[in-house]
Amino acid sequence: MLAGLSSNDVNLQLEAATQFRKLLSIECIPPIEKVIQVRIIAHFVRFLKRFDCLQLQAMWALVNVANHSPRYRDLVLGCGALLPLLPLLKDHAKLPMLRNATWTLLNFCWGKPQPPFYLQIKHAFPALAQLIHLHDEEVLTDACWALSYLSDGTNDKIQAVIEAGVCPRLVEFLTHPSPSVLIPALRTVGNIVSGDDLQTRVLML
């Protein structure tokens, strides 16, 4: 499988990526440590930079590692997975890819302790600010959950969310007909009003 990932043959790469993704999705004690030991995460990060069918396999595999624990999430981020993901969040013409990329970003933002904020996650705010202006409920839901995780912290984290310019749109979501969008938007707003007086005032204007 590792040889397949390292191959120059696209078909072999895809087959190996699929096998690794299935291996990582096993619910009963996923063999993540063995996968990390053979250093395949770097291969999947490299696949994110490609514009063919390997992108989707790479996202699923990286999420299967990242959502296992904050330690594994930080390991994936430390391998540089965030930056090559960001361009995929701008391709609004391919909705299935956009949905998967937003879901991947959500998994990079979840968990406590929070992911490396200023070294990594701060680069995601421009993308999140654009995503919440789309009209796909699945994308909106995942983007709002990501913002709720990122705003659940100290005042400097809240300020970073405010400076992303997302507050007016979050207020609009408080009347959204879908609970899947309303609930994470409400949680994010709640996190923001837990900040200092100036931060709370932003939502009152």
UniProtKB/TrEMBL annotation:
UniProt keyword terms in alphabetical order: Protein transport, Repeat, Transport
InterPro entries, per database record: ARM-like, ARM-type_fold, Armadillo
Domain of life: Eukaryota
Pfam families, A to Z: Arm (PF00514)
A single BP term in Gene Ontology: protein transport
Family to which this protein belongs: Belongs to the importin alpha family.
This protein's name: Armadillo repeat-containing protein 8
UniProt organism field: Dipteronia sinensis
